[in-house]
Specification:
Length: 291
């Protein structure tokens, strides 16, 4: 089993420890420096995020690809706001221009207020995963069809769709921990992305996704997202973790943000909060990585 390392390109030099609220203003110099540093560091890919108030991820990826030669890009993309036929051609074009260095990370979206900012004010979470399922079906057909095709479904009605440009290498990453998400992942994900929870929780999620994928004759890979706290010893790493936690707390207080009572609507974040709540008592999970 090969292991690949995926980094991250934000849009400016901000984080929870530097500012409790991320401005999301695009800093071109920072994007370029971050891309070049991670290419020189040997990273396989970098994730470029997406939100309803951030710079557009595909355009940032196109710029970063133009100033690098080997670094791969994992472009976060939210289905439902761009027609799937259009998105398929956009991503295939980016794949061709980058020399096959692009993957797409499908983020269905769980927060109603986040979705509403881009005009999706009536859908509910289960419907959004059903829409993603249909969206990805059309996306892949646009990438592979040798002749024009029709599609009539619950969310999309396409007549004689066809793309002259096809991707050479464009894997689909997919995230989501709800039962609806696992179902869609099994059918469409080339790589299923999950957070760093306990070993037992990660094993359980991997088993669920594999069971779902097996029904479609598929065998996806897996991506595990972690924020390692690195120190010479485990105790030193725990000490540093506590310092980071306190700094984040102070930043949130200074910005007038709540410390309690805010629960994210998506299942993955809730699972992550549950893992974090037990801190050092979590079985099989610790922040220290020995150099």
């Amino acid at each position: 089993m090969s292991v690949k390392f995926i980094g991250y390109i934000g849009f400016n030099n901000a984080s929870e420890t530097q500012a409790a609220v991320r401005s999301r203003v695009l800093d071109k110099d920072y994007v370029e420096a971050s891309a070049k540093a991670q290419e020189e560091g040997g990273f396989d890919r970098v994730l470029i995020p997406f939100s309803s108030n951030s710079p557009e991820s595909q355009i940032v990826a196109a710029h970063a690809a133009a100033i690098t030669s080997t670094l791969g890009f994992l472009v976060a993309h939210r289905p439902g706001f761009t027609q799937p036929t259009v998105a398929a051609r956009q991503l295939a074009t980016l794949d061709q221009l980058s020399g096959g260095r692009v993957a797409v990370h499908i983020i269905t979206g769980g927060a109603d207020d986040e979705m509403a900012r881009d005009g999706d004010t009536r859908s509910v979470k289960a419907e959004r995963y059903a829409r993603t399922d249909e969206y990805l079906t059309i996306l892949r057909q646009e990438w592979t069809a040798a002749r024009p095709f029709d599609h009539q479904g619950r969310f999309y009605d396409v007549k004689q769709a066809f793309s002259a440009i096809k991707p050479d290498n464009l894997p689909v990453f997919f995230g989501g921990s709800s039962p609806e998400a696992i179902e869609v992942a099994g059918q469409h994900a080339d790589v299923y992305a999950l957070w760093g929870e306990t070993l037992e929780a990660v094993q359980d999620t991997v088993r669920q996704v594999r069971r779902s994928a097996a029904r479609f004759g598929r065998d996806p890979g897996f991506s595990l997202s972690l924020r390692p706290v690195i120190a010479d010893t485990e105790e030193a790493a725990w000490k540093r973790a506590a310092e980071i936690e306190e700094l984040v707390r102070e930043n949130r207080i200074a910005a007038g943000l709540p410390l309690t009572g805010h629960r994210p609507p998506n299942a993955g974040s809730l699972r992550l909060l549950e893992t974090a709540s037990v801190n050092r008592r979590t079985s099989g999970c610790g922040p220290a990585l020995r150099p």
